[in-house]
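F.,

This is the one I mentioned.
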């Protein structure tokens, strides 16, 4: 029958016998409270493969990293509380016992690379407020320094999705959390979203702010002597905004 295909023509998840399926490197999952690693699905690994490839050009890098950012935002939103919410469906007399998110959220992007994740947040949360924080290494002390921040005035009443695609040492993100804490945002109302994290960065975060939820797509091997994540993807901001 035409519906029974030869194995090489089959479609769907069982298109190949198990021993012929491709293997790929998936994230390690360090046992750290409040570290949430996205499900290592074939689609996610394919997206990460695309953006790690040094031959991937800017347009493809933007498209595929946006898809990962969407997954991160959706995962982060799943950590926010919902209340029961009953609705009437268009079908006569039928109701549905559902839920509704009642709280207020905002995004805060760590400039410049964090701004690359704003579109995904806007696609998931229509007319969401987005603040910005600029932290750069001080030329003289080589310590991170806060250069600029613009945040919603009622930020302490909001859940904050902090955006930075690469968690390397965590220096800037930790300082960004200090800024949010100084504005009165409770530690457990902050979710830090990134595409690739280093084990060092994840540990630094857990040591200093154990209640901040870190939502990441992948935990890489480590950092090199220039504090780049390895194997990593190079400089995210350069690849997204300029190259
Ligand atoms: N920032 C990047 O863009 N890449 C890294 O590897 C580390 C920090």
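My design for it:
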């Amino acid at each position: 029958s035409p519906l029974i295909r030869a194995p090489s023509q089959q479609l769907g998840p069982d298109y190949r016998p198990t021993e012929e399926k491709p293997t790929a490197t998936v994230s390690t999952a360090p046992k750290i409270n409040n570290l949430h690693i996205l499900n290592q699905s074939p689609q996610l690994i394919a997206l990460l493969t695309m953006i790690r490839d040094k031959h991937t050009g800017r347009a493809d890098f933007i498209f595929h990293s946006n898809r990962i950012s969407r997954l991160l935002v959706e995962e982060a939103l799943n950590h926010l509380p919902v209340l029961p919410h009953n609705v009437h469906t268009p079908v006569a007399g039928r109701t549905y016992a559902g839920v509704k998110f009642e709280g207020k959220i905002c995004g805060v992007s760590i400039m410049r690379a964090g701004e690359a994740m704003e579109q995904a947040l806007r696609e998931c949360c229509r007319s969401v407020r987005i603040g910005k924080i600029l932290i750069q290494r001080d030329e003289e002390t080589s310590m991170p320094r806060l250069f600029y921040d613009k945040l919603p005035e009622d930020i302490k009443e909001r859940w904050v999705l902090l955006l930075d695609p690469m968690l390397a040492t965590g220096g800037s993100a930790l300082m960004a959390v200090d800024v949010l804490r100084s504005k009165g945002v409770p530690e457990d109302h902050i979710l830090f979203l990134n595409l690739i994290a280093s084990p060092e960065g994840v540990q630094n975060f857990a040591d200093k702010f154990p209640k901040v939820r870190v939502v990441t797509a992948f935990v890489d091997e480590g950092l090199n002597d220039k504090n780049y994540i390895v194997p990593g993807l190079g400089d995210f901001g350069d690849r997204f905004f300029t190259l």
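The chain has a mean pLDDT of 94.

Talk soon.
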